[in-house]
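queue> pop job 88
queue> type: inverse folding (structure -> sequence)
queue> payload:
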């Protein structure tokens, strides 16, 4: 068994943390400054992580290779699997001609770009996040906005910004459930605190989206909608998380927000006009299609909701998981030994790949595409050709996702990620602020709030107890702060680029667009955590 060493350079936390951060510096340099495509940045970061892990942390090369392949496999399944089927779903509606009807049905509610962003990117995206998570809402919502005439860049950027508030409770509450399992803290208590941290931010996210789109003048024209959207979502997020637990928080909050917006649109519309730079001309006349054709056009997304909720129900999960295969990863499972302070006593680091091929959210989305293809009478040959076309469309995005997850898992199993966590923990009285930033770092690295909680959740609790802070607040800050790292993770960028058809050369531009907002919103969460911690 190989024991992890968290201070490999002269027993110094500062020097060891600098070494551990080298792969992150490589990522930021290549995609943020040198403007290289995300797949090149990801592969380069992975190479840097291998050098650090083997050369500095002394990780055996066989373990480095095994952990990298393990991470890449997780990147392709379930993450890549979900994104693939989400894009197939969108392309299916597009190629059958039904997306024009969907566009007209939304345009019948409002043709205003700001309101469309609130309704689709924030509210509908949060609903999809609550059922599927793992990149699905960005893929679906960004594709829908692009189809409505948004420029691919703005569609991607807006959806990445919107996919913040709901992430901590995404995919039927899996991040919070994972956090409770890792830390041993009460799940209901953690759900309450995550809700208390996320809800205040959720109130102003819709307004923030519009401000990013067009400044205060654009926001002033739709302020009633921004208030209704944010308050309705945040109030239900707070109530459900503290009363019923994490599983249905996003779904109920999002439905409440969608209904509230639709009711508002019936009695109010903005008096000013607004256009996004680079988008297509707003269609002045909206066709009326009737209830039947409209429901038929929306059927792919209705099927998506049905199958995702069925898959996520306790009955569905129990039945579908009976055919899941737990693979103890060869040459890695229980071969690495985790050491103090990340654990109370030395213990083996498990590496079990859960090949839940039937119960995965991506499979639910796949069933939705089959049902929709049958209902919309798409020829079988056309459907098969569509599947192959999406594989070609997503090749570089899948390569990026696999590379980044390989990098993240390599850093995890070498101990480099723990070194970075200990550096954050060394901030002492400032730790409540940096607690949220630690979660932000975890999601930036892994692209998943669930993975970040599994990675840093126990470290948050151990550090909180050493500093006499509330461990439930600190653990919850990891999940809440982590959501702000979602918009800059390379796999999220890859998903957005694939869904909108953006040129891969624009990935760096998209990263720079979201980075400043990610830092600002994570800092807001950090300050809110400090207020709760010391009050």
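queue> result:
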């Amino acid at each position: 068994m190989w024991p992890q060493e968290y201070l490999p350079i002269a027993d110094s936390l500062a020097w060891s943390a600098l070494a551990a951060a080298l792969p992150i510096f490589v990522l930021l340099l290549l995609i943020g400054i040198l403007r290289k495509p995300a797949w090149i940045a990801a592969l380069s970061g992975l190479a840097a992580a291998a050098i650090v892990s083997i050369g500095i942390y002394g990780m055996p090369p066989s373990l480095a290779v095994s952990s990298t392949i393990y991470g890449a496999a997780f990147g392709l399944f379930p993450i890549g699997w979900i994104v693939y089927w989400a894009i197939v779903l969108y392309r299916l509606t597009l190629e059958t001609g039904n997306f024009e009807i969907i566009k007209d049905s939304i345009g019948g509610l409002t043709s205003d770009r700001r309101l469309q962003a609130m309704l689709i990117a924030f509210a509908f995206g949060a609903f999809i996040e609550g059922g599927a998570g793992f990149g699905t809402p960005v893929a679906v919502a960004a594709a829908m906005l692009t189809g409505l005439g948004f420029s691919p860049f703005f569609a991607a950027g807006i959806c990445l910004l919107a996919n913040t508030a709901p992430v901590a409770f995404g995919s039927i509450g899996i991040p919070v459930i994972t956090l409770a399992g890792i830390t041993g803290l009460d799940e209901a208590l953690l759900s309450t605190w995550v809700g208390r941290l996320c809800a205040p931010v959720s109130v102003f996210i819709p307004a923030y989206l519009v401000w990013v789109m067009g400044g205060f003048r654009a926001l002033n024209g739709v302020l009633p909608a921004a208030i209704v959207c944010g308050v309705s979502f945040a109030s239900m997020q707070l109530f459900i998380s503290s009363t019923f637990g994490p599983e249905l928080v996003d779904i109920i909050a999002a439905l409440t927000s969608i209904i509230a917006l639709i009711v508002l649109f019936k009695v109010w519309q903005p008096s000013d006009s607004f256009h996004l730079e680079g988008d297509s001309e707003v269609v002045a006349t909206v066709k009326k299609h009737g209830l039947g054709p409209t429901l038929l056009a929306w059927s792919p997304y209705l099927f998506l909701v049905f199958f995702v909720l069925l898959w996520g129900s306790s009955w569905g999960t129990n039945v579908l998981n009976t055919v899941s295969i737990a693979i103890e990863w060869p040459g890695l499972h229980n071969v690495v030994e985790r050491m103090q302070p990340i654990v109370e006593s030395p213990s083996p680091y498990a590496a079990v790949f859960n090949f839940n091929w039937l119960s995965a959210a991506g499979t639910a989305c796949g069933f939705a595409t089959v049902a929709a293809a049958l209902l919309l009478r798409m020829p079988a040959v056309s459907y098969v050709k569509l599947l192959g076309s999406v594989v070609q469309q997503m090749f570089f995005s899948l390569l990026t996702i696999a590379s980044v997850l390989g990098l993240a898992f390599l850093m995890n199993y070498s101990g480099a990620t723990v070194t970075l966590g200990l550096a954050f923990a060394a901030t002492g009285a400032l730790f409540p602020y940096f607690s949220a930033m630690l979660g932000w770092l975890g999601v930036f690295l892994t692209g998943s709030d669930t993975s970040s909680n599994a990675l840093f959740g126990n470290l948050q609790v151990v550090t909180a107890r050493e500093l006499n802070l509330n461990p439930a607040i600190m653990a919850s800050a990891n999940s809440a702060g982590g959501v702000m790292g979602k918009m800059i993770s390379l796999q999220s960028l890859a998903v957005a680029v694939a869904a909108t058809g953006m040129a891969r050369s624009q990935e760096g531009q998209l990263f720079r667009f979201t980075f400043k907002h990610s830092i600002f919103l994570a800092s807001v969460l950090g300050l809110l955590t400090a207020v709760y911690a010391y009050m």
